[in-house]
Amino acid sequence: MDLFIEQTLSGLASGAIYACLALAVVMIYQAIDHFNFAQGEMAMFSTYIAWWLIAVAGLPFVAAFFACIVISLVGGFMVERIVFAPIADAPVLSHIIVFIALFSIFNSMAGFLFDFTPKKFPTPFGHEQLIEGVPLSAHRAGMVGVTLIMLGVIYAFFRYTPVGLAMRAAAAAPDSARLVGINVRFMLSLGWGLAAAIGAVAGMLIAPITFLTPDMMLGTLLYGFAGAVVGGLTSPFGAVVGGFLVGVLENWMGTFVVGSQLKLTVALVLIIVVLLFKPAGLFGRVVVKRV
User: Fold this and answer.
1) So what family is this one in (predicted)?
2) Which helix (H) or strand (E) holds 134?
3) pTM for the complete prediction?
4) What is the 3-state secondary structure of 64-129?
5) 2-116+135-277: in CATH 1.10.3470
6) φ, ψ for residue 283 (rounded to 5)?
7) CA distances in angstroms from 151 to 105, 171, 178, 207, listed in the order given
8) Are 102 and 94 in contact (CB under 8 A)?
9) What tens digit of pLDDT does each residue of 171-194 get?
């Protein structure tokens, strides 16, 4: 029973990271109807920027954390404006090729600028056990707390602010949004920026556990994709729930069924099963097009 509780708590902590990535994936998907295969590499590169601000520039962790979020927000915005805006009407295959190119560029740039040696990334929470008798480290509890706070801020932003409402309108009904004066192109670019900022938070939370390397997000992004598919690609709330579900299921299956070496296959199986039996996900809406 203790092992079950331990794996559940650990799964919730991992699920917090997958929820962040799943939310970022859904935001990009709603903007352009495609997966951003470079989402993990963008998050990794942002984490290297945070490491440089702390280790080289000497900023305290909190200052570097928020500075990295702002830099990632601007960087994601610029990627959309410079790279994707000119090919907005290009075929799907062109977008996929650009995503793969961005994946390679960010991965190679991280190795070139910061080298491939694994680096320790600091945590403000520490790694000691949080509560006696409860198998949950302070950092993993902090991961869940930071994720929930960030998700609450994002919910309030989209629910109550004019810019957030405009972004929702631009994603849901771009033609109608243009008719009421919303700059849809700008809102889509801002969505990219927010997705990059959310990914940066995920990278900074997972780096103290996995060490900082150019390949640190490869497997994690697959779990994020699984969370987005399970929750629903049209539902940000569903993506968050899906991320936590994937985190818990991954730990349960890896510990009690398939073993730790095959945990990654759990995400692949989840993606296939959901796409076969419930393509819209648990919370996604079914889109019907009249032809």
Assistant:
1) Belongs to the binding-protein-dependent transport system permease family. LivHM subfamily.
2) strand 134-137
3) 0.88
4) HHHHHHHHHHHHHHHHHHHHHHHHCCCCHHHHHHHHHHHHHHHHHHHHHHHCCCCECCCCCCCCCE
5) yes
6) -120, 0
7) 29, 19, 28, 20
8) no
9) 778 888 888 888 888 888 898 999
